[in-house]
Design a protein that fits this description.
Arc Repressor Mutant, subunit A; Aspartate Aminotransferase, domain 2; 3 domains; four-stranded antiparallel beta sheet; three-stranded mixed beta sheet; 48% helix
Length: 309
């Protein structure tokens, strides 16, 4: 919409490594500057930005991104729990992203932001934007009716005009009937009144899912998120386990997941990771599915041929 796509090259994985790119190269959001030199002005500007991050989140962020400590080591150094440390790192990343928004356009894709089960609500980058640099994307699919296929964009007027033209060129317009239904439901506060019911439903499914993981996953080898919000859990297996290859074995046991490599620019970086969904299956199937998947994971971890020499 606003630039030549060939002039940008995403170079980092979508999680902590993106924040590491902010810290190291700072001029870009996932832009490959490995062969560029930073001027003295750039370095000075980087320092000022780091100084402006809230102290404790900054310390946690630097320990993991620059010093390359693990989450457990960082938590130990700070004298905090791993979950709290993870939240501090996320806070630092959001503060960095907010600063970056003054220089580049940021697209904030937020389909799950309203689905919070524990912890404080996380403010959107759009809510903190004072420069008109954030394009916010939301959807009714996760908070109202999945079948609507209805979403929205909030953006500065010049950008919005281009988005509308591109949308018209793509499919003319979104289903008008569904738009009228959604507009009426919002006008009558139905969406906000419906949200607590959805949150309670998904919280229950998440709890069943995590309980089964705690009971069956080999915790000495596998790490996973506790899903304070959203519909997924992210898991990391030992490096020698390729989750794309393992998927066939899981499907044979009637369970499936998304191999983590799909979320990485360099797919090899995510070959040992996986994304698990807990929103659709029944409570009974959630428990049974996790236990079957745990069997597959244990077998794959212990499989000699899976190890890299």
């Amino acid at each position: 919409l606003v630039a030549d796509p060939s002039s940008f090259h995403v170079d980092r994985d979508p999680r902590l490594e993106l924040f590491r790119a902010f810290c190291r190269y700072w001029n870009s959001v996932g832009v490959n500057l490995a062969h560029d030199e930073l001027s003295a002005e750039d370095i000075d500007r980087r320092s000022r930005r780091l100084d402006s991050i809230t102290p404790v989140p900054r310390q946690a962020f630097l320990l993991m991104s620059v010093e390359d400590f693990s989450l457990e080591e960082t938590a130990y150094i700070l004298g905090k729990g791993e979950e709290e440390t993870s939240q501090l790192i996320e806070q630092a990343g959001r503060e960095i992203a907010q600063q970056m928004a003054t220089e580049v356009l940021i697209i904030e894709d937020d389909p799950y932001g309203k689905l919070r089960y524990t912890g404080d609500d996380i403010p959107t980058l759009y809510s903190m934007d004072t420069e008109g640099r954030v394009i916010y994307l939301g959807t009714f699919s996760k908070i109202l009716v999945p079948g609507f296929r209805l979403a929205w964009t909030v953006a500065p007027e010049p950008i919005l005009r281009r988005i509308v033209i591109s949308k018209q060129a793509t499919d003319l317009c979104t289903n008008s009937f569904n738009q009228f239904i959604a507009a009426d439901m919002m006008a009558n506060d139905i969406v906000e009144r419906h949200l607590p019911n959805i949150i309670e439903l998904y919280r229950g499914k998440r709890d069943i899912f995590l309980k089964a993981m705690e009971e069956t996953f080999p915790r000495e080898h596998v790490r996973w998120t506790r899903s304070e919000g959203g519909l997924f859990t992210w898991a990391e297996l030992p490096r020698h386990v390729n989750t794309k290859e393992m998927l066939k074995e899981a499907v044979e046991k009637k369970v499936a997941y998304v191999p983590g490599e799909a979320f990485y620019v360099n797919r090899a970086d995510g070959s040992h990771t996986m994304r698990l969904n807990f929103s659709h299956a029944s409570d009974e199937d959630l428990d049974a599915g996790v236990r079957r998947l745990a069997e597959v994971i244990v077998e794959r971890i212990e499989k000699p041929t899976a190890r890299v020499a």
